Amino acid sequence: MKKSEFLSMKEDQNSSSLLDILMNTGKIKIKEAASEDDIIMAGRMRYDIYIEKQGKRYTDANNELKLLIDDLDSQSCILFGYYNENIVATLRVSSGTNKNVLDHFNKYFNASKAVNVFGGDSVYFLSRLVSNLSPLTGKVTYRLFEYVYASLRMKGGRVVILHTVPSLVNYFKAIGFQQAWGEFVCSAAGVQIPMIMAFDNVERLCKIKSPLRRIASQFSHCEEAQKCIDREFIIF
Description:
The protein is α+β, with helices and mostly antiparallel strands. It has helices spanning about 5, 15-25, 35-55, 100-105, 110-120, 135-155, 170-175, 200-205, 215, 225-230, and strands spanning about 25, 30, 75-85, 85-95, 125-130, 160-165, 180, 185, 190-200. Strands 1, 2, 3, 4, 5, 6, 7, 8 and 9 form a nine-stranded mixed sheet that branches. The protein is globular.
């Protein structure tokens, strides 16, 4: 997904300015993949962290080239978080309107239910979050999530879904995600916990002191998606 497609529905000029600020403020910068070389760069970082440092075994990894990429990369938006011009984190954002994306996540949990309830153009999936685990990574990762939040709110995104290892559940809860569906086992990454978040429930993000609250407070509040999530998806 190219930048022009990912950010094609900006609300107004102030929203555009907000994205500009999030992308380039101080020592932290956010960039979107714009070429095949950028996708390869993300794949190399994933391989380095997931496989060489964490010892995970991905059957789709290219061990000869030390790459971890898949078909969704060319159909999604890949983001990079920089600190002092050095990449320290990367994240993939995929739209619920893409059948291939749904087919991928449906292998692990009923992702189609969210699309059926909220509509594909309101649902997005986050995956392949990788960081180099340096002390600075936390600030850069939060900036990535701020950028994703603002970008998707401008596109009408209401619900965001990801899955993570049990040790990171509390981290994502602090951002605003809630556990949903049931856990599953991934052959490469072990036990995974699906999580879901209503992006437009601004009051909740402020109440839990989410790191997104500063950005969220600049957008309109709505509780409809949250009520549906609580009724249909939340298990904890």
